[in-house]
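The pair is quoted verbatim as follows:
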Amino acid sequence: MGVINLSVIHNRLHRGTAQKAVSVELRFTCGGKRKYFSTGVKVCPAQWSDSSKRVIRCKESDLYNKQIDAILERANDVVIKMNSKGITDLDQIPALMQGAANKSLDFIAYCEKRSRERKVSDHTKRRDKVFTDFLKTYGKIKEFSDINISKVRELDEYLHAKGLEQSTVYCYHKYLKLFVRDACIDDLIDKNPYNHLPFKIEKGDKQFVDCLPIDKFESIKRLHLQYDYLAKARDLFLMQCYTGLAYSDLMVFDFTKCKQADGKYYYHAKRVKTDTDFTFQLLAGAVSVLKKYNFKLPCISNQKYNEYLKVIGMMVNVPNLHSHMGRDTAATLFLSFGMPLNVVAKVLGHTNIRQTQRYARTLNKDVYSAFDNIDGKF
């Protein structure tokens, strides 16, 4: 009778590099057969010690090692249980590792559980919640048995029927694929339908962006706001329009990191969302906003910020005013005043020039609209 043995391994396929993190896994062996189970921890080879089986030289080492220890403890219990009962079928391990808890969940509850467990930013967790709320409303993907090719195709057709842009449709599929992949890893779904679709889900590209025309931008600048919280929200929005900063980057903006040359200030940092480099010069308007707050911008939660912007938008007849419109307005204004497309991409920290081209298309759209307005008048 075989005995199941357990070990912790890293970089099993030797694909890890200094830039690419790979999984720390549990390896179950019995009678020449092997079964692997992911711990959910991914690190680069230099951040792993084979001798101690620990994550090292990583700011999250303690958290990662605790996660590995917790899963390893559960795995040891499973091995003891299987050996005591003479069970040698390694295919039973995923189900035993997950226990009865996951089996009692439906797919949506599982998605919510995985969202809580995953080590991701608060921004991503909010996106996860938006997606799971959508699934609840959609109502046709509830159980694990609903994860099949037919249901994925039906979802795709539903999203297109709503008139959504392909880039938005792709995002819905991206979140579903993520949770489907996790469910496959946890052995709760037999087959990933996304690996067998008879059609390709194109990534798409958002054609146009929401941005303010210059007159609305000036109207917001001139507003006399009685309440301090509205004034702060307006000033933060103006700062976005002058710099192209996204909300998450705006909240961590640090003037002390600016470099000064020829009486001008230059800021260089990495985007919170993508870790991409960006750089810009502080325009006079941005410096004016900073002086108002002694060069330390106020902090407002994203939810409150957008609530306040909606109030401000109503004052200038822009009812859909929101935080990302500041970034979009900056990019469009930069281009309209002659800044080259590749420079705008660097200012915004875009990873792909195609992202920046949306702003150029938006300007072209305005040109076409302007010609429509004068067609036949002379």
